[in-house]
Amino acid sequence: MNLWQPQQFEESETWSVSSLTAYIRELFAIDYRLKDVTVTGELSNFRPARSGHLYFTLKDEKAQIAGVMWKTAAARLSFSPGDGDAVLVRGRVSVYEAGGNYQLYADSIQPVGRGNLALAFERLKQQLHDEGLFDPVHKKPIPTLPRKLGIVTSADAAALRDILNVLRRRFPLVQVLIAPTLVQGADAPPQIVRALRWLDGREDIDCIIIARGGGSIEDLWAFNDETLARTIFNARHPIISGVGHEIDFTICDFVADLRAPTPSAAAELATPDSQELKAGIMGLRATLSQQIETTLQQKQWQLQSLSRSLAHLSPQARLENHRQRLDGLTTRLEQIMHSHLERANNRLAVAQARLDAISPLATLARGYAIVRNEEGQIVRHVGDAAAGDILHTQLSDGTLKSQVLSR
Questions:
Q1: pTM over cut 0.70
Q2: β 54-59/148-153 pair status
């Protein structure tokens, strides 16, 4: 499975402000966690624009984030939000390049108390995320040329007809095995799990599509089932989730190996386009024929070219340039080392002179002495020594050991 990778830059490259901001926006775009987030907080700076768009700040006790809701989404609001409202905002996080700041692009805003399903969704989503069920490292690749597809959906749903129409148009060679099930209601989750396990237990299936048309969060709730999510995660075969419309997200989408925005798109992602394959084969055939006809001529030209270029490919000139460059670098290094050593010697001489000036040895050289007892303590007064004590007298050129006869 090909994954988008952010543009790579050399360490020495100088970025423009716009290129750096665009790169940061790309990083936001590839983080699936930021594509569909539900955030709770308090509205402030709420500003309806003449265009119909809504601008606001969502905040809590410790942080805040700028937000915007476009006119089409704002038209679906069931209440009139305002400053101080505690709300649940669902949307995506991206970067507003002109302003150089990240912000929340809201698809829906609900007053707190009306988003119980959304809260349950987020709790389960966070739990499964923390357990690693969404980690890309577990995603299985989708086969490029499947022989048989398994489809888990309602037998009389429009989603199934859409999938079959796409498969007939794109890749009629693929076989289809349908596991019909309910896709809505309290009885749907266990049926979906049974259908999926039945298909996954077969050896003749290359890929499985789980599909349902769009609807409200209540309509799609069967695909937010924890048992279903774990069944998808533990499946042997790669699974494509084609549940809802492009703006709908379910737990099934996050744990599946590939998420499609619609059931039709799931069929497209599961199969190659036969017309493109045919055109590619014809192109390869034409290319191969041309290559066969021209191979000997190309090889002869290459041999002549290589013969003429052989004399120019000698490494002697490059080696000489490298030797000269090495000599120059060596000379420069020696000069730098000599300069560093000279400065270090000067600093050492200054430090040594300062040390000599304050050294007690200089005092000893002027005829003074330091007297210590057997314990190494300095004897400063006559009363610090008693008759019979052994004393050590340090002079400028050594130490004398003596005994106190009297005091």
A1: no
A2: unpaired
